[in-house]
Amino acid sequence: MTDVNALAEALEAAERDVRPIPRLTDSADLDVPTAYAVQHAVIERRRARGERLAGVKMGFTSRAKMIQMGVDDVIWGLLTDAMPAGPDVDVSRLIHPRIEPEIVFLIGREIRSPAEADAAIDAVAVGYEILDSRYDGFSFTLPDVVADNASAARFAVGPWHRPRDVSNVGLLMEIDGRPAQSGSSAAILGDPVRSLRAAARLAAASGITLEPGWVVLAGAATAAVPLPKSAHVRVTGAGLGGVEVTAR
């Protein structure tokens, strides 16, 4: 039988010590349901240290990424109040920092099912997520990345706007003033709202309610790129303003 707590401890130690580990699936029999059990054990360890849940992040929200990973559904991870980044972020505490632009939803009321998702949107914004796989070489299988909380590390959100159509928002990510990635929010399941509904579905299946004040990172509209020390990143969304961060 797979030792969920031992795997959670291995992932927690990798993050704490900033030292990558081999993929869990190299030595453990790990399917996706068990991987989510590991993920939630990791989160419970963070909560035991005083962190509070702050939202959800979605992964594999592009068709290309689903094909690459051989899956037909999105994955999700949990965000805590220790993950928001300020105007700068210490990348020396991360193993493989990569950054990507996001569409972000602010939840205004409890969401217990996908049918409640659309009406619960209190605000929308552009943001970014900094990913950090805890595995050697940023290499993983589907159960590995699920167990690793979908590579969640840091995130930030730009100015909030009243709910609006975000199905085709042009997104630009610049590093040190030069374009690094650009795309449309349509790459996120055709419409980021579909990702929010998927978050509600997956959360409900795990017995989790999406709470007022939580954020949902709908998924990447472009590929993630490495975030080197001293880099200055600006992410902008058409009509949504921008958000910036400097790696230190």
Structural account:
The protein has 5 helices and 12 strands. The chain has 248 residues and is an alpha+beta fold. Strands 1, 2, 4, 5, 6, 9 and 10 form a 7-stranded mixed beta sheet that branches. It has a 5-stranded mixed beta sheet with strand order 3-12-11-7-8, with no helix packed on it. A hairpin with a 2-residue loop joins strand 7 and strand 8 (178-184).
Biggest sheet character: 7 strands, mixed
Beginning-to-end CA distance, first to last residue? 42 Å
Shape: globular
Low-pLDDT runs of 5+ residues are none
- Mean pLDDT figure: 95
The level of helicity is 10-25%
Radius of gyration: 17 Å
Series of secondary-structure elements, N-terminal to C-terminal: HHEHEEEEHEEEHEEEE
| Helix run count | 5
Number of strands: 12
Class derived from helix and strand content: alpha+beta
Strand proportion, as a percent range, falls in 25-35%
